[in-house]
Design goal:
homodimer, alpha+beta, 4-stranded mixed beta sheet, 10 helices, 12 strands
């Protein structure tokens, strides 16, 4: 790894005045007085991405997973700091930096600072990103705000990224829609901002639809009833896997979706449909909140047992 | 590594309301309207710390190196996010979490969020910390503010941590003052806040006194003349190494000092001495800024050649 070349590339990216050219001890940012939304997610080779995933795809994903957290809080990105533990020689670091620049430009998130380390031999590429956003004036939605009587909704389709990963691990290059869902998740910051004032609770689907729904239920102190037959599946998923009960449970436990999962009072349903139309996002009602606790599942009106694994269980 | 136990410990630490109990997608922090100071520094086993350094010492250092950046900008800590790539089994993660709690309490920095990953076999322990601070009302001092005619000052003593590391690598357990300077650096946030309104430029000494002085000179567009005989050496350093020219060059290029290096107009000298007395910190005038560029060295009034290495050169 040539750290100096990588850091020079980061300096070219870090044009926002708050970055101070990456020449100071710290970034100095005018937050504009809004409450701050702060998140830090890591991507580690062999844990979160495959060794042969492209450097630019890895950079995209590093940015996207953190932007997904901002989207779930309705935040506007103010900037990011990167922690880059690099291993590979050759062109990897430069390609990663180029991919980082493209992803940050896409999401409108300036690079403000960070740290770069050439990792010891044998280590995995280890990447961290801190994203800072401005909370919406209406407040950043919490996971804990769902109330009995609210409906549970999700944006987009579920399972595509997990199936794309499984196909990629099996050596397949397609279908592109599934592989891209894994390599290039598309969190929707504008949709998150539009939804934030309407929802009672919101989170992103990162570890699996069922586990993330269960976490909203637990944080909010409500029972959640989720209709598996309502879980939105893409045409590509249906073509590869089908849409039976087992397929739906698989889709709802795979994770890496980076969709928005939220609860609303039923009288906001029209506003949700409007937001979906405005931002070109499918919006699907998949469940309801009731008094009580825990997650339960139905399929075609029949109660179903919870699967042993609701999703990936790891760090926040 | 038992991630679940580690994350439970982090939840016990993260009592600030902005952390949302580490149960949400992101922290939501009221920044109070001040400009934000943002920094992210990594510590990697085998690069920044030795495999047999204690877990609590590593946690201290992770927090301290980031607090040192905040101190150099005169900032008040608002909180931190941690990226913990853990490897060791046994008690390491729990001892690290306990050390983290103690260090954060010492510096008054709440844990707001982060991410935890069990690293693949063979990887080094890889830690990142993002620190967020509130800039002083007078503005966060930059590295670029030094002007011809200003004096260059440094707080504390220089070289102790580097010598402590060298002793530790040679298998020595003492002198404690040097080993502790390496294991437990003591950035001084209160001193940084007191100095911020007085200085024209300020940085922390992290990579070596000479390289950090050179960076201030380059960022400010001034020439810096540094008197090696004025570089403050501790009694422990003098006892182990002596205070000849070679010893002074060694001390000034070792790094890991986490002292404050700053420039002031000469008529602020009394205020600097007062601040040093108030916070129990030695304050030493070690050089001057002149028109021109570059760093030059003197010893007992004679110009000296720059050493080949001014300090550690790596990421920001």
């Amino acid at each position: 790894v040539n750290e100096a070349i990588f850091i020079d590339r980061l300096r070219q990216i870090a044009t926002h005045p708050a970055a101070r050219g990456l020449l100071d001890d710290a970034a100095v940012l005018d937050g504009g007085g809004a409450a701050l939304v702060l998140t830090h997610d890591m991507l580690v080779e062999g844990v979160h991405f495959l060794p042969d995933d492209g450097a630019a795809d890895v950079a995209w994903k590093l940015v996207a997973v953190n932007m997904s957290d901002l989207a779930a809080k309705g935040a506007v990105p103010l900037g990011v700091l990167i922690g880059a533990g690099l291993v590979r020689g050759g062109n990897w670091a430069a390609a990663f930096a180029d991919g980082l620049a493209a992803a940050l430009a896409h999401f409108g998130a300036p690079l403000l600072g960070g740290d770069t380390v050439a990792m010891p031999a044998g280590s995995a590429v280890t990447l961290g990103l801190t994203a800072i956003g401005a909370a919406p004036a209406s407040g950043a939605p919490a996971r804990s705000g769902a109330r009995a009587g609210d409906d549970l909704w999700v944006s987009g389709s579920i399972g595509d990224a997990g199936l794309g990963l499984a196909l990629r691990q099996a050596g397949n290059a397609g279908p592109t829609a599934l592989i891209d869902a894994y390599l290039r998740p598309q969190p929707d910051l504008a949709l998150g901002r539009a939804l934030a004032p309407l929802v009672s609770a919101m989170a992103d689907v990162s570890d699996g639809l069922l586990i993330d729904a269960q976490r909203i239920a637990a944080a909010s102190g409500v029972a959640m009833v989720l209709a598996l037959d309502a879980v939105p599946l893409s045409a590509a998923w249906r073509a590869v896997r089908g849409d039976g009960l087992d397929d739906r449970i698989a889709a709802a436990t795979m994770g890496d979706d980076y969709r928005l999962l939220f609860t609303i009072a039923p009288d906001h349903a029209d506003a949700i449909a409007d937001a979906g139309e405005r931002f070109g996002a499918a919006m699907t009602r998949i469940g309801t909140c009731q008094s009580g606790g825990g997650l339960s599942l139905t399929y075609m009106g029949q109660t179903q047992a919870l699967p042993a694994q609701l999703g990936f269980v790891h760090g926040q």
